[in-house]
Amino acid sequence: MRPLVATVDLAALRHNYQLARQCAPGRKAFAVVKADAYGHGSPAAVECLREVADGFAVASLEEAEQVRSVDSNARLLLLEGCFEPSEYVAAAELGLDVAVQGEAQLDALLAAHIERPLNLWLKLDSGMHRLGFSADALRHAHARLQGAAQVAELNLMSHFACADERGHPLNEAQLEQFTGLLDLEFDNRSFANSAAVLTMSAAHMDWLRPGIMLYGASPFADLSAETLGLKPVMTLTAAIIAIREVAVGECVGYGAGWVAQRPSRIATVSCGYADGYPRTAPPGTCVAIRGQRVPLAGRVSMDMLTIDITDLPPASLGDAVELWGNQIPVDELAQACGTIGYELLTKVTQRVPRRYVG
Ligand SMILES: *Cc1c(COP(=O)(O)O)cnc(C)c1O
What we know:
The protein is an alpha/beta fold. The chain is 26% helix and 24% strand. It is built from eleven helices and 18 strands. The chain has helices spanning 10-22, 34-38, 42-49, 61-70, 87-94, 103-111, 135-145, 169-179, 194-199, 330-336, 341-346, and strands at residues 5-9, 28-32, 55-58, 75-78, 97-100, 118-124, 151-158, 189-190, 207-208, 234-246, 251-252, 258-259, 264-269, 286-289, 292-295, 305-308, 320-324, 354-357. The longest helix is centred in the N-terminal third of the chain and has 13 residues, at 10-22. The protein is elongated. Pyridoxal-5'-phosphate (PLP) binds at residues 32, 34, 79, 159, 193-194, 209-212, 219.
């Protein structure tokens, strides 16, 4: 078997969910498991959290069906609502909580013949300008839904654009938009993603919606997951599959871009960009072997990457190589590549087997 595995630490996942709830005592929390639980495997994440989580949130009916097959009665929120009118029937059959983010969805909902009423989440566009009603339109939508046969609970939600930037003026402005609707009657309100769970208690409301923090990565560029008390859930581990000596002036890898400045020992590692390791990783990016950091040497290939183990003489064929996880925070690699931990985690490809521990 190819030595490459994404080990998923379920005890860490549970720890991180509990930490989200401890940030907001007395509130409930939808564990956001969209995008295959941010690449960790939705069925296993749901199975792991079903005893403790108040509910789950996903991006599509297809994702919701997957969660339902593992947990038949958890609250399960469709974050973007239904994409076509026929989906309301399926949503009702699955007993989903459904966001309503615009007039077209509202019209389709009110025209739908569904067998049982839905818990609805009217989405306010409080300033991100991606989905949701303006405050005035939302008041109108609220009035249209009062007493409608399709409605069980009527709830309010919104989403932050800059919660990961503490002190950004848009955060206050969005919160003001939201609290400006507090005179309307809602059963529940929800506003906080991970960043707001961790640092904006005024936004906690009734239901939190933590995503990235559950997986042990930080939503903040300037606050590490470790500082926040989060435990990394995924460790991506490959192995050394070849070692060679490279003389001064000889090159390594595609484009011959890395040239030995000293007699060097180069190891080839069983992970590449087709597994989700970023091809944009700049020179100086490190992996970890035997508890030591070792730099990349040359470009990342599709199935392999090469590293300079000259300064780690004990490194040998077959050694485990951590690409990210406990020793190399995924956020550190993401930042070096000009992206975010969310992208690296969700882009670990299907050919990397997930192994569950804890
Ligand atoms: C993805 C998502 C979340 C979770 O965001 P994180 O930053 O991962 O915590 C919360 N709410 C909505 C609407 C989302 O789409």
